[in-house]
Structure formats: structure tokens, C-alpha cells
Design goal:
The complex is a heterodimer of chains A (129) and B (305).
Chain A: H1 5-22, H2 28-31, H3 39-58, H4 63-71, H5 75-84, E1 90-91, H6 98-115
Chain B: E1 22-23, H1 36-51, H2 60-67, E2 75-76, H3 77-86, E3 90-93, H4 98-106, E4 111-116, E5 125-134, E6 139-142, E7 150-153, H5 154-162, E8 168-172, H6 183-195, H7 199-212, H8 217-229, H9 233-246, H10 251-263, H11 267-275, H12 282-297
Antiparallel strand pairs in B: 1-5, 3-8, 4-5, 4-8, 5-6, 6-7
Helix pairs in contact in B: 1-2, 6-7, 6-8, 7-8, 8-9, 9-10, 10-11, 10-12, 11-12
Classes of the chains: A mainly alpha (129), B alpha+beta (305).
Chain lengths: 129, 305
Amino acid sequence: MKVSKLLLSFVLSVSLFTQVLSAQIASTGAVLGQSAVSSKKKLAQIISREDVTKKFQELGVDSKMVEARVASMTDEEASKVAHQIDTLPAGADAGMSIVGAVVFIFLVLLITDILGVTKVFNFTKSVRN
Amino acid sequence: MIISSGCAPKNPLPSNNSYSSYKTDVPFITPRSELCASTSIEMVSSYWQILTPYVPRLSLSELDERTLIPAKGGTVQIELIAAARADGLLVYPLEPTFDALFSELSAHHPVIVLVNRSYSWYPLWHYAPVTGYDVKAQTILMHFSDIPNEAVPIETFAALWERSGNWGVVLLPPGQLPESATAEKFLRSAYDLEKIGMTNEAITAYKSALSRWADDIPTLIALGNAYYNSHQITEAEQIYRKILLIDSKHPFALNNLADILCHTNKSDEALKLLDQVVTDNIKIHALIEATRKEIHSGCTPFIKK
């Protein structure tokens, strides 16, 4: 997680500045029990957003779209995606492809061969032997 | 004979039979590989476009570009939510129950669900809009795949849906309210719109929440703050004053109204409001003192926008 010193100082100065400007209003987040954003937290959120951006690029998302996609997430969502993208389920498609099904059946038969419940392939050796 | 097995859905089917059949006329779009999330959003958003003045902000291809993660070959839930919001819709997370699902269907609100078409050890995740329920045939109607309003036996649906923890979302134009909503959860969904900069949509949503929960103070504060943050100071002042009619000692309303009064050259009245605050909460106390300090040092007038 590399954040340049320049960015860091920029973030801190901006957040300090906005705090001076609007410290007097009780925010909606406070009503909902979402704690106020400290400079440190703000920084963590920006890092999360950077992480999502980087992960999305690694996962092949069009770099032109990454910014818009991250921008429409709330801070909480961005941080969740940043930390859990590898384990989150991805809703995909209309079921298994034929190739997928063939591979799948192959794997099942391979396992049952190994378990000694079937003997489909010549190259398998059952654990029961 | 009842056969009990480990694979039985943990979420039982609706136990009471008070539900009737429901059907919503959601436009159907033929599925495209890997793009069930954006297709589902598009189907629901065209439904609302027909029924309400809502106009989608994004085209289908823009939705595609915002939802697909190529390496995962699909869409994660958060991005379905974020894309729907960017399309101008409020996203309400459904309570993971059949009661909540049927309650939305009874109000003609389609629900997008996440299902696992396969087993957990070989998951095939899939999003699809639920469009209705047939009580006689005991089927759930949904634009599952190639067939519009495909009738899925309710036991099958329950098994597939249970594997996602009964995950579902209600997508609505901000002027509509989910049938199954609670004031607090709805406020969170509306506030999410404001958080990503869709303040006008958030204001519309807060107002429609007040049409059902007229005296809900958190919603009133949210509306007042949204007005304040979008420089609609007169409207903000009216809302804060309305809160004080319901709860004359509400510290947030007293504080925020005092701030407005200070900026509009009514410092005496502002200080009187702050004097009414009674709190043993350290944070609220600090906030009140900060506002008091600001008033004493003199507030600058609001910049007209």
C-alpha cells in the first residue's frame, strides 16, 4: 500500500480544512451511528479505493471504467470489495457450458475411479488396491 | 412421509397460506453470457420506466461495462448495487425471508435475487429478477434464463436461493418505497445515494420516506442535512424547526439550526437554542461547544448559490 507523501499531505490538509469548515453540523452518519470520519479513517478509505482500483485492473476491468465504478460505491462498499474481492461470489451466467460439463463429468469419474467405485479410465489407480 | 436430510433448506417455506398469486409485467431480455447482473438491472429499470416518470441514467452497454469483472466472469453483489445506484435507482437490501419477498411481489415490486444453481462445492452463481408467485401451482415466476416468467417449483427455488443466504435487492426509483422496508434500513439506502453524490435522488427518497413515517426524526435530520449540504438553507431551517416541534430538546436539530441562525445573523437566537441542549454524550457536548465557539467568533454569511 504505497501512498505518496504528497498525496498524504494533501489528504490531511484537505480533511483538516473541511473539518474547520463544517465541524459544526451534526451529520446524518452520526444519526445512523456511523462514526464521524477522522483524517486517519479518511486516509484508510482512500487507500481502500486505490486497492479496489488496482485489483479491478488486475482482474481485467477496462481502465476507463474503473474510476466510475469505484466512484459509485460508498466507502464501506469500497473497503469491503478491497478486502474480500477474491472470496465474493460473482453472479454470472445461464448455467454450465457443455465443455464445463464434460470437464466436470471427467473429474467426477476420475474421483470415483480413484475411490475405487468406478473403473472408467485405464490410467487411474484406485486407493482400494 | 417426511424425509429429513442435511440438504433441506434451512429457510423454511412460507408457513402461512395468506399469500395469493402475484405477477408483475417486467420486460424480458434474453440472457447474455456473464452479464446476468446488468441484464437483471436493465429489466427492472425498464419496468420502472414504464410505470413511473423515472428515466434510467445508463444504457444496457454502460451497465455491462460497470458490472462485469472479466477475470471472475461475473458480477459481485456490491457492484450490482453500485451500478443500479448509478442508474438512478435506490437499492434496498431485502430481508432474507420469503415473507419479505412476497411482501414486495404483492406491491408489484420485482426483486433481484442471487441464487446458486449448483452445489456449494461447484458454485454457479446467478442473478435473476423474481416477477411473481403462483400460489396454486406453488411456483416462483422469474426471468431465470431463456424463458420469460419461467415457473420454478418453490422447493427448487428455495434450495437455490438458500445457498446465497437468501440474498436479494429491491431496486426502486427514489420516489417509491419498498413494501417491506423499515424506516432505519430505508434511510441507510437513501443515505447511500447521498454519499456517492446523488443528493437530489436522496432528497426525493427522504421525502417519500416521510410520506410513510412522517415523524421519523433520523429521516428528518437526513433531509435537513441534505438541504443544508446542497445550499437550500431555507428548506433546511424549516426541517430542523419541524424536528423541534416533535422533540424540542433534540440536540442535533438544536445544533444544526443554531448553525444556520448564526450564519444568517441571528446569533442571539442561536445561542439560546444551544443553551437548551442537555446531554451527557461527550461527542455531542464537543459538537455543541464547537458551535458555541463559532457563534462567539462570528459566522460568515452563507455564500448564495
